[in-house]
Amino acid sequence: MKVSIVGASGKVGKSAAFCLAEENVANQLVLIGRKESFERIEGESLDMYDAMAAKDIRISIKASCDMEDLQDSDVVVITAGVPRQAGMSRLDIAVPNAKIVAEYSRIIAEHSPHSIILVVTNPVDVMTYVALKASGFDKNKVFGLGNHLDSLRLKNMLAKHFNIHVSEIHTRVIGEHGDHMVPLVSSTSIGGILLKNYALNGSIDIEGMVRKVINAGSYVIDKKGSTEYGPAYAIANIITTILNDEKRILTVSTYLDGEIEDIKDVCLGVPVKLGVNGIERIIPIKMNDNETKALINAAKVVKENTDKVMLSLDI
């Protein structure tokens, strides 16, 4: 299996490459960056080789600035783009990043037409739509990181709150990867017990937790300048699921055409069944009224922002 990472000179790109190499599911890893970044990504690849030797993992890691090296990739990850700075929203970088994502998506379609594209560049829901349209790929082959990372963040907060192993927490965040994310509290469970039945004393501030999840990226950026390890491991998690054909249900940003609440022509985070061919199925969701209204509102907001960005592109 071959995985290529476009934008590997950035913190998320190079950290995702390291996490993926450590998973030992791909035998070829290509780190692609601009010509001026080549020395840096070559250094990263050599450093990774040493680390993999310590773990007895055999993998080919190639640094490149030649897009032809995308050829025959099974998965291509797009992390390239203008990074979000402290005080910036994800939408502040939408138009410049859309132009970058569109260009790379066309190149991927040219050199690796049978690959799966995983979009990480923010705002990821809008960028996933851009990548889908620019590549011309089927919708099951293009999706974004989005709410998978948000779901992991909420899962971690709930585990800390209840002092329970994180594997016992089953929760999901859908909608926008941003201010309009929607936690599926009604179906959240702990050890198979619905949260509403588990937290009978009413001591949990779920709205406060969601606010923390919404601001998690900004909080890290304010402290250290960028997010890195959380997105990297979430990316590796998704790619491992694909390459191992695990048939797991993960929440990724995908194109909707009426499958959920008749929402159409927009990319949003929803649960999907993932395998070696990409998205095998969008999973139907039963939500309460508040969650349904919040998802429909998220779709409206993301659709409006997507339409504005698409007007700036020649697609």
Proportion in helices: 40-55%
Query: How big a fraction of the residues is strand?
Result: 15-25%
Task: Tell me the CATH topology of the largest domain.
Answer: L-2-Hydroxyisocaproate Dehydrogenase, Chain A, domain 2
CATH architecture of the largest domain: Alpha-Beta Complex
Q: What's the CATH H-level homologous superfamily of the largest domain?
A: Lactate dehydrogenase/glycoside hydrolase, family 4, C-terminal
Q: How many helices?
A: 10
Rg for CA atoms: 19 Å
CATH class of the largest domain: Alpha Beta
Q: Average pLDDT value? A: 92
Low-confidence stretches: none
Instruction: Return the structural class.
Output: alpha/beta
First CA to last CA: what distance? 31 Å
Number of extended strands:
14
Number of domains: 2
Shape: globular
> SSE string, helix = H, strand = E?
EHEHEEHEHEHEEEEEHHHHEEEH
